[in-house]
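[recover] target loaded
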């Protein structure tokens, strides 16, 4: 059926050179999450990639040519459904359109796999929310950066006032995929890591910065030194500038105090991993510049995107960190980055952070990072632990013990007990991969296993039973202990402090506008009292963690959509619909009897957004997209072209709630048998 859809759509869009999203009624729909790596572009009926079968040769997020076509992979110039001209509604939805496994030739960050190979990615996994012992960076846009552990809890945020962005603050920024990654590869960082993470480049904007003249062989150029008094081409101790839109106005170069023009008076190049200024005309004695410094991260990546689908050999993709990991993580988890803590300043490496109170926003004793791990190097592979390789030495980083994206029990099974990493498989054997504490905290192994991997207290304590005859040796717990915490409610304004965007959206919903007892955060997310003390998923139960039947049942509570105080609309319903919409049945019963529920396994939040509204035909709806666009996500609407109207199949049904208010919900079974088929032929 999907290929019939292709043919109908292509007849419409071929003459427009694939210029627009698919139109459904009055609305434009998101690009269908469909992809076939056959080197034939069916955009906008499938996700567009310039090189479908080998994206490693055409990196859509970097290395743009002058005639690039990469923009069309994410943006729609005149018919976008998301802000910043995105083809999907949010940044998260845009990233996951490809990186949830839909595009089989790139990274699947949802499952944490390289393409279709099954090899674990080096960043970990985000999951879908129901995986055992899952923890992840919450990149859905639900929190602000100041919620980061080790971040600025003071409420007094560092500010900036720069030519391109105007005034703003660090920390008070929505956290999402784009917080850590630059989708356009700005700054040239490895893994397209964001050079301006948490507004780093804006807060550290340089003005009238003196450049250093360097001569190497026959080449003379100027650099802005990031450290020291002379340039070291091996250490690359020069700033890389974040340039191009939206960093144009603030990037200026002056010869002896006079502003000059790029391409006429000088050449600016970032190709070497730092910024070089080469004079094209003139002979300046001094060069100064204003620029946005990049937070630089470097890695050595071999066999890029090669998951080695067959032999699982070491020739598949490998990643070795080289520079900047601690500083990058520390841009948000500032107090946890101890690579600049020195108890003994005479030593060349950071030291003593576990013996010396330290931290910018909070004081505590903390584990050291940034030191040479030579004493522990041989043990790191046992738990698949990483390091940063610089100057021939290996240094501890945040990612020695943690994954960047997240972990779950299934990811540990791949990395610790699977065949991908032999040392780890030998070390772990059949040990249970169970997180006792409740939150896996992005750790590379469960519980405190990363500590034990290096510190080896188990071997150190051997002989206890021999020296204590008759005693019974203790055993570590091997089963999970569910955290016990009071389900106390807190004022919703406490939720707002971290989840401002979601809270503001919720205020516009009917849930928030109910008279009397509103449906608020803690009706769907319990455990607020402890969660505000320790912002961890271990102290928060979410409705999304339930299976689809339980989620619908939650909404069908007696005081919610399970009430039986319904009224019929004055319209010609068929007998099937009328049988569900009368005063003796609950609002939710018709949905439970529909194909949406029984075939599609759809919950209320499959389509509805409890955290915000959209406007459609002068009305507001708690929906994720425009109504027609939502239908097009799953159903083949090609035969309707622009004539489809969702209300012809799911007409509004005014229903009276317990409080007497009348809400226009909709039918699920009216004309259900005539509704267009699923895009997925398996349905």
């Amino acid at each position: 059926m999907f290929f019939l859809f292709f043919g109908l759509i292509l007849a419409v869009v071929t003459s427009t050179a694939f210029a627009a999203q698919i139109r459904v009624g009055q609305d434009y729909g998101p690009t269908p999450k469909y992809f076939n790596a056959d080197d034939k572009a069916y955009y906008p009926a499938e996700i567009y990639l310039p090189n479908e079968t080998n994206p490693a040769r055409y990196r859509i997020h970097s290395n743009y040519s002058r005639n690039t076509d990469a923009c069309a992979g994410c943006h729609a110039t005149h018919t976008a459904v998301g802000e910043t001209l995105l083809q999907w509604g949010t940044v998260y939805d845009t990233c996951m359109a490809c990186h949830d496994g839909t595009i089989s030739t790139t990274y699947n960050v949802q499952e944490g796999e390289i393409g279709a190979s099954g090899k674990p990615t080096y960043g970990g996994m985000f999951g879908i929310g129901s995986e055992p012992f899952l923890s992840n960076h919450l990149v859905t846009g639900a929190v602000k950066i100041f919620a980061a552990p080790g971040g600025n809890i003071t409420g007094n945020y560092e500010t900036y006032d720069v030519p391109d962005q105007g005034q703003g603050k660090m920390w008070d920024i929505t956290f999402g995929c784009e917080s850590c990654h630059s989708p356009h590869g700005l700054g040239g960082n490895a893994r397209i890591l964001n050079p301006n993470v948490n507004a780093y480049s804006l807060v550290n904007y340089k003005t009238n910065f003196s450049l250093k003249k360097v001569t190497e062989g026959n080449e003379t150029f100027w650099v802005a030194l990031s450290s020291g008094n002379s340039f070291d081409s091996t250490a690359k101790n020069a700033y890389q500038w974040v340039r191009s839109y939206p960093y144009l106005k603030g990037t200026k170069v002056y010869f002896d105090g006079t502003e000059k023009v790029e391409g006429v008076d000088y050449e600016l190049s970032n190709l070497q991993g730092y910024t070089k200024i080469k004079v094209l005309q003139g002979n300046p004695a001094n060069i100064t510049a204003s620029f946005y410094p990049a937070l630089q991260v470097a890695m050595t990546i071999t066999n890029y995107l090669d998951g080695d689908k067959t032999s699982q050999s070491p020739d598949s993709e490998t990643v070795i960190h080289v520079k900047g990991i601690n500083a990058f993580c520390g841009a948000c988890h500032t107090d946890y980055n101890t690579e600049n803590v020195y108890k003994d300043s005479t030593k060349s490496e950071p030291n003593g952070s576990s013996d010396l109170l330290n931290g910018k926003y909070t004081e505590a004793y903390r584990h050291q990072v940034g030191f040479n791990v030579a004493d522990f190097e041989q043990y790191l592979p046992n738990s698949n632990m990483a390091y940063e390789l610089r100057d021939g030495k290996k240094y501890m980083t945040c990612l020695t013990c943690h994954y960047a994206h997240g972990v779950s029990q299934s990811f540990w099974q791949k990395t610790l007990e699977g065949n991908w990493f032999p040392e780890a498989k030998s070390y772990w054997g059949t040990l249970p991969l169970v997180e006792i504490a409740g939150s896996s905290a992005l750790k590379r192994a469960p519980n405190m296993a990363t500590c034990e991997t290096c510190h080896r207290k188990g071997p150190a304590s051997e002989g206890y039973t021999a020296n204590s005859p008759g005693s019974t040796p203790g055993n570590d717990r091997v089963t999970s202990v569910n955290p016990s915490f009071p389900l106390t409610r807190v004022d919703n304004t406490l939720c707002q402090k971290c989840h401002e965007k979601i809270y503001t959206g919720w205020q516009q919903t009917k849930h928030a506008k109910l008279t009397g007892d509103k449906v608020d955060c803690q009706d769907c997310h319990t455990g607020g009292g402890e969660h505000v003390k320790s912002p961890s998923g271990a102290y928060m139960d979410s409705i999304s963690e339930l299976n689809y039947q339980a989620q619908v049942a939650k909404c069908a509570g007696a005081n919610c959509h399970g009430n039986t105080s319904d009224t019929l609309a004055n319209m010609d319903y068929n007998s099937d619909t009328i049988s569900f919409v009368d005063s003796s049945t609950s609002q939710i019963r018709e949905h439970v009897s529909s194909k949406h529920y029984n075939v599609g396994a759809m919950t209320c939040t499959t389509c509805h957004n409890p955290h915000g509204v959209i406007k459609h035909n002068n009305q507001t709806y708690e929906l994720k997209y425009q109504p027609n666009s939502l239908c097009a996500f799953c159903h083949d609407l090609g035969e309707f072209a622009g004539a489809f109207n969702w209300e012809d199949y799911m007409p509004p049904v005014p229903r009276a709630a317990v409080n007497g208010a009348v809400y226009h919900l909709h039918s699920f079974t009216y004309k259900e048998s005539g509704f267009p088929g699923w895009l997925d032929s398996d349905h």
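[recover] notes: The longest strand covers residues 318-323.
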